[in-house]
Amino acid sequence: MTGSLFRPRGGIDQVPLLAERKLVETVERRGVLKGAVSLGALTFLSGCDVTNERSVQSVLTAMSSWNDKVQSWLFDANRLAPTFALSDVVDPPRYNAFYQIEEVKPVDVSTWKLELGGLIFDKRPWLPAQLAALPQQDMIIRHVCVEGWDYIGHWTGVNLKAFLERIGADMTAKYVAFRSFDGYVSSLDMASALHPQTMLATHYAGRPLTEPFGAPLRLRTAVKLGFKNPKWLTAIEVTNAYPGGYWEDRGYNWFSGM
């Protein structure tokens, strides 16, 4: 059999691909491209020169961006994610962050407040009692981590769309960005933020959130992977400027829908 004219002699140098392993995993993991892209396929898609690290980085970044756009186009704002029975709930939930659980620094709820910024009419900060006074939403949904594990969780809190309406957010803006007590940042497209199964969660399994799992306030959405659900929220901003995120800025797909 004659080898491809586009395949380098002596085999493919894997070093540049390994250097961009996180991007490769991200591109491969997403459903739109799953099964269609492999390290071998990248050889052809990257203009055949996988020995050029800059070329691989450029192609993978472009593919990740394209993947985000396709997922955004395919996203159905009215399609509900599966829900589950109370008997399916894992309690306590599984901890995950970019540091160990022993390193979690508790938020002082007595001084905590939720700051608001950007394209919002009423930017006055919110206190826990004010959030508790709003209508509460309850949902039992699956949490899916980008690492490949999942669990069923029971969350209660304020529907994010209702909250954004309450504070006079510009619903035509592109993004809703979140900042956490520990410096973690993430963001959603507006369509996902307005999805019926996206909330500002204050309770888990019928009890107030505990420190490792986001107390006093975290984001929970049924339409995004776990890392798009920041814990220990301290600020929300509505904006048209791409806000990125902690993992998103490190090569993970920004959209990361399910």
Produce the secondary structure layout.
Blueprint: H1 15-19, H2 21-29, H3 39-45, H4 53-74, E1 115-118, H5 128-132, E2 137-144, E3 150-159, H6 160-166, E4 175-180, E5 185-189, H7 190-193, E6 198-204, E7 207-208, E8 218-221, E9 233-239
Parallel strand pairs: 1-9
Antiparallel strand pairs: 2-3, 3-6, 4-5, 4-9, 6-7, 6-8
In short:
With 258 residues, the chain is α+β, with helices and mostly antiparallel strands. It has helices spanning 15-19, 21-29, 39-45, 53-74, 128-132, 160-166, 190-193, and strands spanning 115-118, 137-144, 150-159, 175-180, 185-189, 198-204, 207-208, 218-221, 233-239. Helix 2 (21-29) packs parallel to helix 4 (53-74).
Characterization of the model:
With 258 residues, the chain is an alpha+beta fold. It has 7 helices and 9 strands; from the N terminus they run H-H-H-H-E-H-E-E-H-E-E-H-E-E-E-E. The protein has helices at 15-19, 21-29, 39-45, 53-74, 128-132, 160-166, 190-193, and strands spanning 115-118, 137-144, 150-159, 175-180, 185-189, 198-204, 207-208, 218-221, 233-239. Strands 2, 3, 6, 7 and 8 form a 5-stranded antiparallel beta sheet that branches. Helix 2 packs parallel to helix 4 (53-74). It is globular, with a radius of gyration of 20 Å. The termini are far apart. Residues 1-14, 27-39 and 41-46 have low confidence and may be disordered.
